[in-house]
Amino acid sequence: MMKQTVAIGGMTCAACARRIERAVGKMAGVAETVVNFATEKLSVEYDEKILALRDIEKKVVDTGYSVIKKSTVDEDKLRKEREIRTLKRKFLVSAIFGAPLLYLAMVSMVWWLWWLPFPKILKPMQYPVNYALVQILLVIPILIAGRNFYHVGFRALFMGSPNMDSLIAIGTSAAVVYSLYCTARIFMGDFGAVEGLYFESAGVIIALILLGKTLEAISKGKTSEAIKKLMGLAPKTATVVKNGLESEIPIEAVEIGDVIIVKPGGKIPVDGMVTEGYSAVDESMLTGESIPVDKKAGDKVFAATINKNGALRFEAQKIGADTALAQIVKMVEDAQGSKAPIAQMADVVSGVFVPVVCVIAVVAALAWFWGTGSVQFSLTIFISVLIIACPCALGLATPTAIMVGTGKGAEFGILFKSGASLETAHKINAAVFDKTGTLTEGKPEVTDVALARGVDERRLLSLVASAEKASEHPLGEAIVHKAQERGLPILKPDDFQAITGLGIESKIEGINILVGNKKLMDERAIALDELSSASERLAEEGKTPMYAALDGKLAAIIAVADVMKKSSAEAVRTLKNMGISVVMITGDNAKTAKAIAAQVGIDRVLAEVLPQDKAEEVKKLQKEGLRVAMVGDGINDAPALAQADVGISIGSGTDVAMESADIVLMKSDLMDVPAAIKLSRSVIRNIKQNLFWAFAYNTAGIPVAAGLLYIFGGPLLNPILAAAAMSLSSVSVLTNALRLKRFKI
Amino acid sequence: MKKVLLLVALVFVGSVGFRAEAAFWNTDVVGSGAVTSFAAMLDALESKPVEDEMNGLWILIAPDGDAAFWFRKEVKDASSHMGHDMDGKQMQALQIWFDAEPFVKAGLDLNKLPSEMKSMLEVGKIMFGRGLSGTPSYEGEVTPAASFEQIVKLDRDLIGYHTALDHYGVTIAPGTLFEWAKDMDKNDKDIVFVLDPQIFIDAGVDPTKVEGWVFDKVPVEDERGRAIEADKFLKPFNLK
Predict the structure, then answer these.
(1) Fewer CB in 10 Å around end: N or C, chain A?
(2) Nearest CA distance, A92 vs chain B (angstrom)
(3) Is residue A335 packed enough to be buried (19+ CB in 10 Å), middle (13-18) or exposed (0-12)?
(4) Whole-prediction pTM value?
């Protein structure tokens, strides 16, 4: 199976998206199709042995839409800008001609506008032909500006799947055709037909909808600004060293293995590993972390990050679509392109909405014609129902909020991999944290030093660190790191020997140094009594004791532990305050695990869980009725991440974990776990508000437009007001979605 | 922007074309229809309009003799005879007059009427009148129909169409008109004297008690074509 994304042009509402989904979905070999109206993209999974992408693209074109070839960030931006410019121009035309048209119609018809000047030559009861002809002249440019509604709307109607444009096309065409008929009647001497002119309704409806579309296009652009910003971060060129010569080449020409130089202030062009130099690199654009990260030989650097103060030379390791930036962009794009389950309902409603509205409009118009005998009144009802019922607000309600939400998440370094994950995260009521590397730093550190009588701590640490320097054991590295941190001298050992599974033995300045576990001490018959109580205490605290003996006598116990991340305790507390139970899962024994969990305030511990059993433990929690978020970083966490309702992986973790997760936290900051859930809750609340208003607007608007209230002496909806309300509903939904941009962690 | 300019130019050209076309085509269907139907109405009248030679007016008297519509034939420059009002000014070019008696019986306090309505009280008539903005000039025979055509030409704004009654009308004063049917074959009110009752109500008239006049709410269009309902005194006649 192959998964591809195709950019679609010409969609005007959610019904269009549904139509393409249906058309492509019916093709043999297609497993899944998702069309996102907001991102204007089709995601299709298909069997490449049965059909090719060009067949799918042809189907899209045959269905009445265009396929936009993959473009660069700049081209995409230009295309969107061009689209907005065109819409603005069309709106401008419709406004220029619509304003006098509305003026003519309204000033002559609305009593409280009596004070406005009105040309005598156009008075409808004295010069009805002039009045009609001038309106025709004014409405023609507006109809030309809005011709796309007719082109798309009637084509969709004739193809059996009417959309929002069909409603606009039918409604305004009915107004224009009837007005032309009235004009002909005026010419024939029936001057009373001047009251049946609806040119201004058609013109102003188109003008208002063009305004709505323009604002919609601008807002849509804003919803995807975050990802555009991200995409625009990549530099266009790289300075490559070849045969000792530096040359600036386009980013596309960089190959894996190329040696690249980045000067202070420059952007890292591709992912790679530093070979020379030392500098601080601002990675905030990828991780959201504002403090620059120190980079030296052996460290990884990432495309689009900024080299702050020193020159770096690095070897290109990942280029093009493989860079971390490209992966993030793809992940966010996929998330924005995917549909949250809540969107499915809106799509289904939108799909059946238009035909149902057409039927309601016809039935209401016929009923009123039967009741009043007035063609004009029935036509007003017909147009109002069609116009007010355009389901564009409904179609925009979910995808816009998802787009802004995922974009906002990306800004903070929280990558939602799908709309579904963004939606599900708000339901989470249990968060399971893997211990090592997730709650803890994943790197052991010296936490305690218990000394025997008469031993100097600095001297001891210096000797032990010097002995461990040659060791590659993580616990030894922790001691070396501690000594370096304290500025202690690292001496050159005269002798060194690693004792597998037990520790090391070394000789420095004539002193015999033995560092290792209890077993090593026992083997060498070194008495531990002096520090036995310290040893027990450290074990209870979940720390690993390392015994150090100098010249055959116990000198100290150095405790090493994987320390908690600074943010762990606060993250746990925040989650608890949000009503989410927090669970720690670890392979440690129960006593140690509980001791560690207590440090960060976790009450429930799943200890002695083998890596392969983590997913099963998550399943058990789910059986308890909990909606579980699993937070992990390692390969061993991948099954549990996949099993959980929402898998959250730490960005510093393995690729496998990130692949299995639904949400990736780029900063490795656990405070992003509650932040992701909070963002999800905000997005879902926003979607619900949008859907409520879109549904409420349509369900309330249609009966009013159909004249239900009018029967009981209530108001009747003018088609122009219907168009204004319809456009406003879309704009209000978009504005509400854009409020998410103000979300703060 | 080019397209916007092109569209503006298109509309401009269209407007110019429309004006040229209007001259050729005569888009003033109400004006021309009013002239034609007025002539047809005159033909249907049993008592044809009589000429008031002294004042240069045609007098169209209602079949019941209680009301009349006067309209200008020509401008006279004589000075102090009957054709001129008390100030020596020329008689107004368009007038409606009618018997004062039914209104007085219905409570009219004549002192409360504006002076311009009382210039014919000495002969028992109340009148509304107005001038014209030009002088009629004829090319052919001077007939009542030709004089009315001159009025339409000189003061086209006074001519309107009343949808509810399918009438043309000439406005004498605000709310006060002389109306005639666009098509007398389809209309049972071939001519109608229409008065705004408010001025009489203000002068003490009980509108329901005015004999010979119908007091009713009538769907009308105001001068901008807004459909409204207005109280009117009506004196309709079916000529056929």
Answers:
(1) N
(2) 8
(3) buried
(4) 0.60
